[in-house]
Amino acid sequence: MPSISNRPAEAPKGTTGDTWTESQGTTGWVTSEFAKTARVRSRPLQVTWEMTHDCGWKATPARARRPRNQQQFSTAEAFHLVEEVAAMQVPLLALTGGDPLLRPDLLPVVSFASECSVRTSLTLLPTPRLDSSIISELKACGLMRVAFWLHGSTPGLNDRYWKMQGLHRRTLEIIGSCHEVQLPVQVNTIVSRRNFHDLDPMIELLTRLDVSLWNVFFFVPGSKEETVEMLDADEHELIFAKLYEASKRANFQIKTTEGQHYQRYLLQQRVRESRGRLTEATAVPYAPRGVNDGRGFVFINHQGEVYPSRFLPVCAGNITSQSLSEVYCDSPLFTSLRDASNLKGKCGRCPVRTVCGGSRARAYAVTGDLFAPDPGCAYEP
Ligand code: SF4
């Protein structure tokens, strides 16, 4: 299941690509000795941690019998991760799964993060385990925002994706419970060929649901067979136009994931609307530097393996034997991804490559080359 990205719930409405400026995050502080001695260097703006790989819906006896090295973090390891995130002053720790409710230490982990001034969001599945009392407890523990997946505006579209009836209705009910305790809600949608005609009804639904943030994931194929679901470059542009228009009137924020070139689209709109005062060349230095795979973003799986993105299956290290800071700041994979001079083809000669850089996950999925041009981009530098 895909991961999420977030922005602070109280940020003003608007739109953003895979970007997050430093000023939008909190710095926070930590009380442990570990944190006091940690050196703050380059830091991610979001760490997403897959708390567990397990999901009750699909659990099998075989999964339950995982060998030791397949097991998820202990509670002590989870607390240590929170301390590292706090010490690095990461603005957001996004907790995801599997089904995080399967971890008995979910509430203590959220509470501990809150004590360390680490903002947390949590992606939940509408399983029978999830009810309004858990939502209230999470709110009381200091959770900043809860996220749900909705892959279509109708039960037909969403439930067909999950191959399970009733999830659309159940998700809407739980969103109502979140509003009752004033817990901000995020909705995540993976946009692919299957559902990209559904964007307008989705925007209407999210307005009615009074969500805080819509995180639009642009599909990255996980295998050759899945490439048929991937949108082409022109379809990405059409969606960008819809998101941009929606961002002017919607009362929720819109964020893209693996749609780094939305930053380029926004920059082009700023230039167009400046009526000749700006050019792309003059606008680039002032544009927010986009978050990209490994540049501002880190994904940690349930075994502690560190990746630049959940959709980029190249591992940079493991936090059970290294510090998160070490992997993020010094691993050859992360440092090379942050170096725009490594980009190839049109991404390499693109004037907005420092703002965008293209989806490294999509480039890798389609070509096997981390630095190849993003095949989902229509821009010709
Ligand atoms: S060519 Fe590459 S760097 Fe330039 S806008 Fe497109 S994806 Fe981004």
Description:
The protein is built from 15 helices and 12 strands. The longest helix has 17 residues. By secondary structure, the protein is α/β, with parallel strands linked by helices. The chain starts with 14 loop residues before the first strand and ends in a 14-residue tail after the last helix. Strands 1, 2, 3, 4, 5, 6, 7, 8, 9, 10, 11 and 12 form a 12-stranded mixed sheet that branches. It is globular, with a radius of gyration of 20 Å. The site of iron/sulfur cluster (SF4) has 15 residues, from α14. Iron/sulfur cluster (SF4) binds next to α14.
Amount of beta strand: 5-15%
Mean pLDDT: 87
Cα-to-Cα separation, first versus last residue: 34 Å
H/E element string? EHEHHEHEHEHHEHEHEHHEEEEHHHH
The global form is globular
Number of beta-strand segments = 12
Radius of gyration of CA atoms, rounded to a whole number: 20 Å
How many helices in DSSP terms?
A: 15
Helix content: 25-40%
Alpha-beta content class: alpha/beta
Largest sheet entry: 12 strands, mixed
Which cofactors or ions or other ligands sit in this model? iron/sulfur cluster
pLDDT under 50 segments (min length 5)? Answer: 1-17, 19-40, 59-69
